[in-house]
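DM from R.C. (forwarded with permission)

"hey, sorry to bug you on a friday — could you get me a structure for this? deadline for the figure draft is monday and I only need the backbone to look sensible"
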Amino acid sequence: MIEINEVTKKFQDKKKSITALKHVSFTIGKGDTVGLLGENGAGKTTLLRTIATLLEPTDGSVKVGGYDTVKNPDQIKRKIGVLFGGETGLYDRLTAKENLEYFASLYGMSKHDTKVRIDELARMFGMRDYLGRKVGGFSKGMRQKVAIARTLIHDPEIILFDEPTTGLDITSSNVFRQLVHQLKRDGKTIIFSSHIMEEVTMLCDKVAMVHKGELVYHGQLEDLYAQENSRDLNFIFMSKLVRGDEYHAS
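My reply, with the result:
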């Protein structure tokens, strides 16, 4: 479903070149739910943006559903839903409903399908009371709910979430987690980054760990637990960062 092959991404900062990703390679299968772990600046968001066709790799390639992210970005964009932390992509002057209708139109959805889908998502996220209000006056949590609905409006096959529960209260976070379980049952392919280890252990079958732009582990959570002789993902993650001489992707 997603093939990441020797991806390197460099950015030019004034006179200095910064390498955000270094020869990253792994494959994500259809229906996988993968937790992307790494400290701030490790390269998680760069990797997600590369998969989403928003960044081109400096070297290497990414294929999504058989399509190359550089050569065939339009075909890929129809298949994916993307939400990056802190970037809701919403228009403040429009109501929540108008925002969702606008993004649905970009995907060529009919008015009937759009109405049905908005009703479904509004019920799921408890947004019915403020669908008709302008997004500019929303709290961070309310905006995040609408942003998640925007990500899912076209029922994508592949969903990329970057810190999706940022700004959500406990109840809304639990609703999101229930949503991920439903998406898994529907056979969706999901990648999401999170600093909440409990969230990853609850929702993910696999994890990918990135440190300083390099992949240090990719595989089944259960295999990682067995390898490290522990089920404490936070301890395992910190331990892998400390053991700098043993970094390797499984």
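R.C.: lifesaver. Strands lie at 2-13, 16-28, 33-37, 59-64, 67-68, 80-83, 158-162, 189-193, 206-211, 214-220.
me: no worries. The CA atoms of residues 123 and 186 lie 18 Å apart.
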